[in-house]
Amino acid sequence: MFGPDKCGEDYKLHFIFRHKNPLNKDLEEKHAKRADVDLKKFYTDKKTHLYTLVLNPDNSYEMFIDQSSVSRGNLLYDMVPPVNPPKEIDDPNDSKPDDWDERAKIPDPEAVKPDDW
Questions:
Q1: CA nearest 55: which of 4, 18, 11, 2?
Q2: Against a cut of 0.70, is the pTM above it?
Q3: Which DSSP string corresponds to 36-67?
Q4: Which of 63, 77, 81, 112 counts the highest number of beta carbons within 10 A?
C-alpha cells in the first residue's frame, strides 16, 4: 500500500507491504519510516499532488511528492520491523532442565470446573 493519510493533525505518507518471515513463515506488515520533511503543507494547500514511489533493484526506495524527494531508505533495513530478522546466536551451553516435560498439555490435578459451568 502506498499513499497519503491524514488523521486529525497527523500527516503521513504510507508505504506498507506484506512479507513472509523466512524463519516462522508468518506474514508481517512492513512500514517505511516517516518522511524526512514536514508533510502538513501538502495536505493543507488544497491542491492536487503527485505521489510517487520508486523501488530499485538494489532494494532501495524513494518517495516523492510532486517530483520532490520526501523520504528514502532500504527495503531490508529501513522498514519497521526490519525485513531481515535479527540473527539469533546459538548458545552451545543452552540445554533443557533435567525435569523438563515434553507434553503439549500438562493436566492440572487441582483444577476443577466452577459450579456454574
A1: 2
A2: no
A3: SS--HHHHHS-----EEEEE-TTSEEEEEETT
A4: 63
